[in-house]
């Protein structure tokens, strides 16, 4: 199957029109021996990738595919970044592994670099294996620091924080609702800052953001701030396709701070240039600073698995003399931390955060032009970095969706397949096209991919809508 987009694994959709050759013997062997995430096992038939360079993947049959979603929105540095590969190789020759019961130079150096980049001076970093366990540990630390072992966790409807049982319970993801138990994990849900379809009935984007933040404050007051350990939210990009208005995050921060409740920023997808800053909350300056933030994906540019929880000095101070009843055998793995340190250097040395901001603005302008030409594009969101969302509709005036959320319409499954056949991997979810190319993508590659996207929208979506209207 074509690349399955996600924010930690969302599927493009099974059963898409393939637009490519029949599965190779190698792909059949993998399908019959491996369980892959977010797919129907019997329908998996993706190309085998044998290499990569820049924003492109190389298949076993020699084709190049332009990766327009950074795989799972994680390969921010592109593929096989030479500096990161060198760092992994050098670290492997010195020391592959030692547990966190022992010191490791790359672990300490990466923690120090993260604290400096985020301005969490005097804080601490706990390393995990990925995004879901980073979110679980952030909540665990918040509960311990607040003295609330079973403290409530306020999250948003239509959100995604991971596929572990706790993270599924905290997420507002309809696909896993039947398998999760929000009550058992202390989950309290509030409406999202979804300005295009505002749950508060306003057409004003800024007002929708303020009302969504007020809904968090109301939930805290209703349950009692003394019973709530944390508010866990994505400050910007997420696979749910909601980009909060600028009015939202500072108001949310003010509401949690006034009530003494910790704010956890889930930056697993939005950090490291994806939204035009090192960390998305920095767009709002000190008014947006959370108490804890979680990282993964771009932390190593996806060269090796690594996640992290960054704790403020205040939260870390409350844990300083307490036993931490938690552990991961591979937390702070020296190889992964060496990759993370090299990744941070690459972002800085190559000016990729600033480049993402500049190219993201260009991409947003091109997408707005596309929207004017394509009535099936209801709204374009993003523009802060190399992340954008197209929400597709049957009727722009009524905003009628192509399919009920989170169902992915057949037209978009076809679009993904034809894009892959044309050499570009697009990511879709529901009625959304999620655009998150590597920060190293060439400007001509960006323009060519958007031109292809417009053609595919015309072929796959606009024609289908016209046909149904007859």
Can you walk me through this structure?
The protein folds into 2 domains: 25-73 and 352-469, Aspartate Aminotransferase, domain 1 (Alpha-Beta Complex); 82-349, Type I PLP-dependent aspartate aminotransferase-like (Major domain) (Aspartate Aminotransferase, domain 2). Mean pLDDT is 93; it is low at 1-20. The chain is globular, with a radius of gyration of 22 Å. It is α/β, with parallel strands linked by helices. The longest helix has 27 residues, at 443-469. Helix 5 (131-146) packs across helix 9 (313-319). The protein has helices at 25-31, 70-73, 82-94, 105-118, 131-146, 165-170, 205-223, 248-259, 313-319, 334-349, 352-373, 410-421, 443-469, and strands spanning 49-53, 56-59, 64-67, 124-128, 152-156, 187-190, 228-233, 262-266, 292-295, 307-311, 377-382, 388-395, 400-401, 424-425, 427-429, 432-435. It contains 13 helices and 16 strands. A 7-stranded mixed sheet has the order 4-10-9-8-7-5-6, with helices on both faces. Strands 11, 12, 13, 15 and 16 form a 5-stranded antiparallel sheet that branches. Helix 8 links the parallel strand 7 (228-233) and strand 8 (262-266).
């Amino acid at each position: 199957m074509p690349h399955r987009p996600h924010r930690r694994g969302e599927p493009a959709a099974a059963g898409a029109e393939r637009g490519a050759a029949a599965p190779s013997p190698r792909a059949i062997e993998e399908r019959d021996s491996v369980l892959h995430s977010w797919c129907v096992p019997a329908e998996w038939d993706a190309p085998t990738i044998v290499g990569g360079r820049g924003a492109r993947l190389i298949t076993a049959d020699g084709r190049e595919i332009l990766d327009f979603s950074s795989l799972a929105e994680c390969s921010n540095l592109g593929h096989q970044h030479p500096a990161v590969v060198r760092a992994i190789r050098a670290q492997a020759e010195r020391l592959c592994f030692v547990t966190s019961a022992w010191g490791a130079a790359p672990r300490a150096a990466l923690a120090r670099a993260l604290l400096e980049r985020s301005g969490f001076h005097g804080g601490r970093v706990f390393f995990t294996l990925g995004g879901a366990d980073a979110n679980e540990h952030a909540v665990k630390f918040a509960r311990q620091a607040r003295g609330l072992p079973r403290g409530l966790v306020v999250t948003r409807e239509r959100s995604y924080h991971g596929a572990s049982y706790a993270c599924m319970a905290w997420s507002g993801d309809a696909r896993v609702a039947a398998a999760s138990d929000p009550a058992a994990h202390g989950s309290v849900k509030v409406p999202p800052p979804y300005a295009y379809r505002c749950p508060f009935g306003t057409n004003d984007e800024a007002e929708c953001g303020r009302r969504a933040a007020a809904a968090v404050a109301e939930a805290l007051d209703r349950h009692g701030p003394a019973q709530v350990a944390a508010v866990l939210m994505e400050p910007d990009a997420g696979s749910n396709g909601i980009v909060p208005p600028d009015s939202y995050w500072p108001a949310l921060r003010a509401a949690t701070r006034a009530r003494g409740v910790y704010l956890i920023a889930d930056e697993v997808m939005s950090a490291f240039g994806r939204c035009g800053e090192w960390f998305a909350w920095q767009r709002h300056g000190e008014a947006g600073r959370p108490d804890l933030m979680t990282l993964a994906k771009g932390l190593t540019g996806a060269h090796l698995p690594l996640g992290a929880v960054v704790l403020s000095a205040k939260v870390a101070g409350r844990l300083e003399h307490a036993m931490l009843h938690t552990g991961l055998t591979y937390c702070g793995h020296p190889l992964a931390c060496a990759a993370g340190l090299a990744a941070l250097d690459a972002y800085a040395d190559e000016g990729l955060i600033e480049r993402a901001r500049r190219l993201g603005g260009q991409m947003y302008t091109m997408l707005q032009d596309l929207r004017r030409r394509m009535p099936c594009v209801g709204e374009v969101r993003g523009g802060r970095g190399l992340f954008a969302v197209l929400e597709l509709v049957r009727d722009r005036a009524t905003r009628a969706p192509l399919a009920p959320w989170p169902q992915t319409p057949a037209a978009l499954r076809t679009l993904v397949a034809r894009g892959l056949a044309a050499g570009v991997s697009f990511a879709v979810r529901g009625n959304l096209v999620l655009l998150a190319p590597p920060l190293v993508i060439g400007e001509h590659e960006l323009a060519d991919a958007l031109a292809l996207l417009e053609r595919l929208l015309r072929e796959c979506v606009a024609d289908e809508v016209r046909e149904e209207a007859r």
